[in-house]
Each structure stands twice: as C-alpha cells, then as structure tokens.
Specification:
Strand content: 15-25%
Largest sheet: 5 strands, parallel
Helix content: 40-55%
Shape: elongated
Number of helices: 8
Order of helices and strands: EHEHEEHEEEHHHHH
CATH class of the largest domain: Alpha Beta
CATH architecture of the largest domain: 3-Layer(aba) Sandwich
Length: about 210
C-alpha cells in the first residue's frame, strides 16, 4: 500500500532523534534545510553531530519522558529492542515515529528528496525499493532547473500585487500560470511595463 506524502512544517516544534551514529547524522542532514529544532539523544555522538550548530544534545540513555511534546521522533539506533520500545511508545502517544530500516515500526517514512529553495519533491516507494527511490530522485533532480527556487521566490514576491489587481480567484490562477510560463521561457524578473500591461488588461476584461 502506498504511503500518503504529507508535507509538514518541522520548524513548528521540537523533533527527537535517538542515536548518535552515521544513520542519525544522515537524518539530521536531511532535516537541517527545513530549519527544525532537534534534540538528539545518545550515549556517544559522532564529532560531525557535535559540530552541527543548534542541536540540543542529551548525552545518556533514552528515557521515555523524552518523547513528551515532540512533533516527531526518529529512532536511529542499532538496538532492536530499544527501537521497538520507542516505536510502541510513540504509537501509544500518537507521535509520528520513524524507525530506521524497519518499515513495520514506522508511522512516517523519509522520502528521497529533491530541494530547490521552497520547492521540495519527495519520492517514496513505501519502503519497497530504496534503490528505486534514489534512481528516480536522480532523474527528477536532472530535470528541475538549478534556479527553480529563485523563480518560485520571485513569483511569491508578486503574489500581493497580483491579488490586489485580480480579486477573482480563477482569473488570478490563470495569471500565475501565465507568469510562470513566461518566466520559464524568457527569464525573470519581468519588466514593470510587461507586468502592468498584463494586469491592466485583465482589469479591463473583468466585470
């Protein structure tokens, strides 16, 4: 069964990672571009983890109280019993949990990610083939322009101007489609004269 791809603001709360090794480091590196607040619990930490700014490091064994109030939990240890304990605890408390390399214990999965600024594309095979997810990530990464994030930031900056000029929702969607296509074809920023002409023409056409 496929897993539904929710997109969540991980900067809105505190996430917990249990584990201080290479697997934990990979999860931290995937999350960092999304500006989370991360607490990491382990008896020992890789130097690379200790060097990451902004992490809250808890040096010692996992305690059940650590999951309280967490937005999500990642269990990245090599202790199967501990991973099972963390997964069961999070399920009981309805806290999303990811147990590395154990799909059955997870309530959310890490996708293969393609990121360009505000654009995030997640690829998941539901755990059926991580190699397949990595392959399609490479293919999609090749197709998405490197400056796609800059384009999206530019269009976002036009949002209020377009809203003010085009109050009708359907017409506004059409305007954003025109803007996107034009930027892809001709580059950006668009000239003020061109933009004024587009929005002015729409004002005359709308009732």
């Amino acid at each position: 069964m496929a897993w539904f791809p929710f997109f969540m603001d991980v900067s809105a709360g505190d996430g917990l990672i249990v584990g201080g090794g290479r697997v934990a480091l990979r999860k931290i590196e995937k999350l960092l571009p999304y500006e989370p607040q991360l607490t990491v619990c382990a008896k020992t930490f890789l130097p690379e983890i200790e060097a990451v700014p902004g992490l809250k490091l808890l040096r010692g064994p996992f305690q059940p109280s650590m999951v309280e109030g967490k937005l999500f939990v990642i269990s990245a240890t090599n202790d199967n019993d501990l991973n099972s304990e963390i997964a069961a605890l999070c399920r009981e408390k309805r806290i999303p949990v990811n147990v590395v390399d154990d799909r059955e214990k997870c309530t959310f999965l890490f996708p293969a990610l393609v990121k360009r600024g505000p654009l995030s594309i997640g690829i998941s095979t539901g755990g059926a083939s991580p190699s397949g997810a990595v392959y399609w990530k490479r293919e999609i990464d090749r197709l998405i322009p490197r400056d796609a994030g800059e384009l999206l930031a530019y269009l976002d900056g036009l949002r209020e101007t377009v809203k003010e000029a085009v109050p009708d929702g359907m017409a506004r969607a059409a305007v954003f489609s025109i803007l996107f296509d034009t930027c892809l074809e001709n580059g950006w920023p668009l000239s003020d004269e061109w933009l004024d002409g587009l929005l002015g023409g729409l004002k005359e056409e709308l009732p």
